[in-house]
Amino acid sequence: DIQMTQSPSSVFASVGDRVTITCRASQGVNNFIAWFQHKPGIAPKSLIFATSKVQNGVPWRFSGTGSGTNFTLTITSLQPEDFATYYCQQYDTYPLTFGGGTKVEI
Amino acid sequence: QVHLVESGGGVVQPGRSLRLSCAASGFTFTAYGIHWVRQAPGKGLEWVTLISNDGSNKYFADSVKGRFTISRDNSKNTVSLQMDSLRVEDTAVYYCARAYCDGRKCFEPNAWGQGTPVTVSS
């Protein structure tokens, strides 16, 4: 199985900050990387697919980069509604696997 | 408007069965596969299974292989997840999510339901 190592596991930030979350895959995933935002008690929200493509309706401050086995989600100018847990996922090879999550806290 | 609604969750004893359903609306159901993803209490997201848009391909996490089965009824826009031999560690909120399939591959979840809780306890 492909292991997804996500870091940091948590980050403290303020409104307006730039936040960067990284995900490392244990092998190549052909850039089939997605990022999700999850808040307690509500449905996860899809943010990024294919490493860098933004889902419809997602604010411009969310961006994804990467290649090979190293991938990054960046939130430029953090907003109050962005405090949540973020997950990467590889969807290249079954079983699909998620990173462990990054909690973005105030 | 894309809408996915899970149902069927509840409390069940270890070793028993439960059947979850995912009802879809607002999109062309036959163009999309359906993932199930779960979140155990205090844990992260865990991918469980996918059924392709035409039902011809099914994939499972190692943790549920041989115990869970997935099926779909394209005439009713529903997907069912049959969970047998349930274990305490299957306790989680279960989410269904759609994924576009292009005939060769199904892609990432891009719209999610609100989830249904499953508790396995004696």
Protein architecture, described:
The complex is a heterodimer of chains A (106) and B (122). Chain A is an all-beta fold. Chain A contains no helices and eleven strands. In chain A, strands 2, 4, 5, 6, 9, 10 and 11 form a seven-stranded mixed sheet that branches. Chain A has a four-stranded antiparallel sheet with strand order 1-3-8-7, with no helix packed on it. The mean pLDDT of chain A is 97. Chain B is mostly beta strands and 122 residues long. Chain B contains no helices and eleven strands. In chain B, strands 2, 4, 5, 6, 9, 10 and 11 form a seven-stranded mixed sheet that branches. Chain B is globular, with a radius of gyration of 14 Å. Chain B starts with a strand and ends with a strand. The A-B interface holds A 1, 32, 34, 36, 38, 42-46, 49, 55, 85, 87, 89, 91, 94-101 and B 35, 37, 39, 44-47, 50, 59-62, 95, 97, 99, 107-115.
Key phrases:
heterodimer, A: 106 residues, mainly beta, 7-stranded mixed sheet, 4-stranded antiparallel sheet, 11 strands, 0% helix, globular, B: 122 residues, 51% strand
Write a short abstract of this structure.
With 106 residues, chain A is an all-beta fold.
Radius of gyration of chain B: 14 Å
Helix share, percent of chain A: under 10%
SSE string of chain A: EEEEEEEEEEE
Mean pLDDT score of chain A, rounded?
97
What is the global morphology of chain B? globular
Number of strands of chain A: 11
Shape by Cα distribution of chain A: globular
Multimerization status: heterodimer
